[in-house]
Design goal:
The complex is a heterodimer of chains A (about 500) and B (about 375).
Chain A: E1 7-18, E2 21-32, E3 36-40, H1 47-54, E4 62-67, E5 70-71, H2 77-82, E6 85-88, H3 100-105, H4 118-132, H5 147-160, E7 165-169, H6 177-192, E8 196-201, H7 204-210, E9 213-218, E10 221-226, H8 233-241, E11 259-269, E12 275-285, E13 289-293, H9 300-308, E14 318-321, E15 324-325, H10 331-336, E16 339-342, H11 346-350, H12 357-361, E17 372-373, E18 376-377, H13 379-392, H14 409-422, E19 427-431, H15 439-454, E20 458-462, H16 466-472, E21 475-480, E22 483-489, H17 495-502, H18 507-510
Parallel strand pairs in A: 3-8, 3-9, 6-7, 7-8, 13-20, 13-21, 16-19, 19-20
Antiparallel strand pairs in A: 1-2, 1-4, 4-5, 9-10, 11-12, 11-14, 14-15, 17-18, 21-22
Helix pairs in contact in A: 14-15
Chain B: H1 2-28, H2 33-45, H3 48-73, H4 81-98, H5 104-133, H6 137-157, H7 163-168, H8 195-213, H9 215-225, H10 227-232, H11 237-261, H12 281-291, H13 296-320, H14 325-357, H15 365-368
Helix pairs in contact in B: 1-2, 1-14, 2-3, 2-13, 3-8, 3-11, 3-12, 3-13, 4-5, 4-6, 4-11, 4-12, 5-6, 5-11, 8-9, 8-13, 12-13, 13-14
Classes of the chains: A alpha/beta (about 500), B mainly alpha (about 375).
């Protein structure tokens, strides 16, 4: 046996050009039997390109691919599957109207053609489930499954095809913290059974907890290879971004003044008519950031929509902005009262992708005397204003006339931020302000929010990123099943304690 | 740039293919396709008079088409051009009947405004139904077409009928001859080229200005692209949906007024059929708008082309003795090809765009951002 016998996969000197861009430049990457090897990098670092080459979706321009010590040409996903490579895509590839067993059998030859062999498939699924702790009912329709369960079906699909090398592309993006924990137990067990796993993520905490080895990509090149016990989140972030990054922002002391936003006994129903926000009261004062922590789906979205005027509240509740009752007013008049609003979904709620950057920057205040004279837009003034914001907020765009859809997520978010902050809001409602954006952009957005705090804005921050909430908030309100079950001051908010509160456990707080 | 030029050429290629199909139909009818084409061309452009007739024919198509672009840009489908034309024609007719003695410089603008209001109301109704009661606007506008035809027939046979028709017992469904003060003045002597043509062109230009140069149009387009983003930004989505159909309808309504006061008979007349008064301008305008790429300014030449097809068809019938409905069929074929060509256009743009213009690949969000990763943000 040679020295590479324990390598399941070896990619040597992989180079891939796209017009004008080197997506992968001389990348070396290997996976041993029985390990989780993480590919870490910002958006566009070349992670996706590398695994797409592995899965036969792209062909490398240079470099060799060795599987189980043998040189391989993988020219299509079916080649990859027959070489026992499995891919769990970020966006699930399941037919919602079919059952689990039907989804797993899809694309596989039946042993009883022309009839299906679903009972056999189901039996095998149960075996796989048992072996790996992937609890799922084979005869259940996929549409009825939770997100976490659907992911398990994806994994079962790969295992059913006898995958030995599994690629997991940002598998935790859609999961709750509990589901993430469950998934990691499953993944670890699969590695322990001798499989090789490639884990793609940019969530540093998860990478640190799951990986055996970590390879960091930046601009298509390998900039570092390490293991969790030899590195830290800060060091990984620095490798990814190429400079020192503050992961947790410093919150300087600040003077908190009068109440700017107050909610009194606010209850909100969701689309299906059940109570999503249950009798919530709190206030946000000038110069403070109140963070709302909670597992997604505990009423955060509804409460944000209620404050923004996009969802009506139940009759006995009261929402006040700057002392005036806005409970029954529309979004426009709340904005006129001084509300700034960064919606949860960047697209399509925050910005219109088909509009230019300039158009999105004036989406809210497009009818001011600054931009309109005698009923017509004065484009000179609009583009002057937009260019100023683009440079003030470091938006990377070729011009203000570029369609917003061609910008990266982080830059679209900066466009929204620029629009909302340039109106000098006295109350800012920021929902998931850094979801899915690069570390660098996230750091920038955090600094901007802190700057607003110093300017005396009352900010309500709603985020699923617990680190973000803990790092930025003067006070943290924890939502669970539609209620605010605790409000803790930022200094007292320890990760573990808040984590328990998010799961609805209140006893330990009192103890 | 290259793909933009090619993309612009696609509709014309589509028209060319459609004409090839038309030629096949002519051959099937035993006629010489080249003679047929020549007859259409001659009929539409052969003389100043014919050119003027083509322009007059194009007028309602320009107006309806410009209105359609406004509705479509707001992501609202307006199939109600027919009802809106009738609404505009009826209201302007009533105004001319009621105020026959007003001087022309007052009465002409007044009947045009009345047309806009009449059509606007018939647009606002399905608009408000969609916005506030979630009634599908395609259904409601089509239904209104049927209702308005019957309402027109009722009025023209009853309350508004020419008293002379009752006396003579002929009972042709038409109004009395309306005040000459309301007649749209002829611009070029000896032809039918009247003020209405200029009004239509001006209206299309105004539609363009509204859409791309005013806050009103900005809101309409915002609502059209993303009602959710518009709403979050504080734009009243429901009001803008209603407004879009109201503007769209008022442009069609102006077409209705022009059909009445630009006609030689100077009266409103129908044959009782669904297309009797409008000659299907409410539908053909949609075609003109689609052929013009849903751009108000491109709607002008596009409407002119369809106007030419319609006037040319009369000549085709006369010269080759083939049914004039051939032009209608040709019309339909062009629509099919133009609409399917938008797919070709997207395909052209994505393939060309991906290979060399931006260095972007499809389906790979990650790699699009390669250039921006190293950039430092603070």
């Amino acid at each position: 046996m040679n020295d590479q016998s324990n390598n399941l996969l070896e990619m040597r000197g992989i180079t891939k050009y796209f017009p004008g861009v080197v997506a992968n430049s001389d990348v070396d990457f290997d996976v041993r039997y029985g390990e989780v090897h993480t590919l870490l990098g910002e958006n566009g670092a070349g992670k996706s390109t590398l695994v797409k080459i592995l899965f036969g979706l792209y062909q490398a321009d240079k470099g060799d691919l060795l599987l189980r010590g043998e040189k391989m040409e993988i020219s299509s996903p079916s080649d990859a599957i027959s070489s026992r490579i499995g891919m769990i895509h970020q966006h699930f590839m399941l037919v919602p109207t079919l059952t689990v067993a039907e989804n797993v059998a899809l694309g596989m030859p039946s042993t009883r053609r022309p009839l299906t062999d679903l009972d056999k498939v189901s039996k095998r699924i149960s075996e796989i489930s048992e072996e790996h702790g992937l609890t799922v009912n084979p005869s259940e329709t996929v549409a009825h499954l939770s997100v976490g369960e659907r992911q398990r079906v994806e994994i079962i699909k790969a295992l059913y095809r006898d995958a030995e090398l599994l690629v997991l592309d940002e598998p935790t993006a859609v999961l709750t913290p509990k589901e993430v924990d469950d998934l990691f137990v499953i993944l670890r067990r699969m590695a322990d059974n001798g499989r090789g796993l490639i884990f793609i993520s940019h969530k540093l905490r998860e990478v640190m907890s799951l990986s055996d080895r970590i390879t960091v990509l930046r601009n298509g090149q390998v900039v570092g290879a390490t293991t969790p016990d030899q590195t830290s989140r800060e060091e990984l972030a620095q490798m990814m971004v190429g400079r020192a990054v503050r992961l947790t922002p410093d919150l300087p002391p600040n003077e908190v003044k009068e109440s700017r936003l107050s909610l009194n006994n606010v209850s909100v129903k969701n689309d299906s008519g059940t109570l999503a926000v249950d009798n919530v009261s709190f206030e946000v004062r000038a110069g403070e950031i109140l963070g709302i922590a909670g597992v997604s789906g505990n009423g955060q979205r509804e409460i944000a929509e209620a404050i923004a005027g996009l969802r009506t509240i139940e009759p006995d509740g009261l929402i006040e902005i700057n002392g005036s009752n806005v409970s029954d007013t529309n979004t426009r008049s709340r904005r006129d009262q001084g509300l700034g609003f960064i919606p949860e979904e960047r697209v399509p709620d925050g910005a219109i992708p088909e509009f230019t950057v300039g158009e999105n920057l004036i989406l809210v205040d497009h009818e001011t005397d600054d931009f309109v004279s005698r009923g017509l837009f004065s484009f000179d003034k609009i583009s002057e204003h937009s260019s100023q914001l683009v440079s003030d907020f470091n938006v990377k765009t070729p011009s203000v006339n570029t369609p917003t859809s061609s910008l990266s997520g982080g830059n679209i978010q900066k466009v929204i931020l620029a629009r909302e902050l340039s109106a000098s809001p006295s109350v800012l409602l920021a929902c998931q302000p850094t979801r899915g954006v690069d570390i660098g952009a996230a750091e920038y957005i955090h600094n901007r929010l802190i700057e607003q705090r110093e300017l005396g804005t009352a900010t309500l921050l709603i985020s699923e990123d617990l680190d973000e909430v803990l790092g930025l908030s003067d006070r943290v309100a924890v939502m669970y099943e539609g209620k605010v079950i605790a409000v803790v001051s930022g200094e007292d908010a320890e990760r573990e304690k808040v984590g328990l509160l998010m799961a609805g456990v209140t006893e330990t707080v009192d103890a | 740039m290259l793909n933009k030029v090619l993309g612009g050429l696609v509709p014309f290629l589509a028209a060319l293919v459609a004409f090839a199909f038309g030629a096949i139909m002519l051959i099937a009818l035993g006629a010489n396709p080249f003679e047929g084409l020549e007859a259409i061309f001659d009929g539409a452009f052969g003389s100043g008079e014919r050119l003027a007739a083509t322009a007059v024919k194009a007028t309602p198509l320009i107006l309806v088409g410009a209105g359609i672009t406004i509705a479509f840009r707001t992501n609202v489908v307006n199939i109600g051009g027919e009802s809106q034309i009738i609404g505009g024609a009826l209201l302007s007719t009533v105004v001319a009947l009621g105020l026959p003695d007003l001087p022309a410089f007052l009465l002409v603008p007044l009947v045009i405004i009345a047309g806009a209001i009449g059509g606007g109301i018939l647009g606002a109704i399905p608009g408000a139904l969609k916005a506030y009661a979630s009634v599908n606007e395609i259904l409601s506008t089509i239904m209104l077409n049927l209702m308005m035809v019957q309402f027109m027939n009722y009025l023209l046979r009853g309350p508004l009928i020419d008293p002379y028709e009752l006396e003579a017992g002929t009972r042709i469904p038409q109004t009395e001859r309306l005040s000459d003060n309301a007649a749209l003045p002829t611009i070029i002597g000896g032809t039918r080229f009247h003020l209405g043509v200029l009004i239509a062109v001006a209206a299309a230009i105004v539609a363009y200005i509204i859409l791309w140069r005013t806050p009103v149009g900005f809101r309409l387009r915002a609502v059209g692209h993303s009602p959710k983003a518009a709403k979050a930004a504080g734009i009243n989505v429901k009001r803008n949906i209603t407004l879009a159909l109201a503007i769209s309808g008022s442009l069609a309504g102006i077409a209705g007024a022009i059909l009445v006061f630009g006609s030689e008979g100077q009266r409103m007349v129908t044959d009782g059929s669904a297309a009797g008064f409008t000659s299907s301008a409410g539908f053909n305008g949609i075609v003109a708008a689609l052929f013009g790429g849903l751009h108000p300014l491109w709607t002008i030449p596009s409407a002119f082309l369809f106007g030419a097809l319609l006037t040319g068809a009369t000549q085709l019938q006369r010269v080759l003795q083939v049914p004039s409905s051939l032009a209608v069929a040709l019309n339909g074929i062009i629509v099919i090809f133009v609409i399917s060509s938008s797919r070709v256009r997207t395909w052209l743009q994505t393939t060309l765009g991906n290979t060399n213009l931006f260095g972007k690949e499809e389906d790979d969000e990650d790699d699009e951002e390669i250039n921006s990763t190293a950039e430092v943000t603070t």
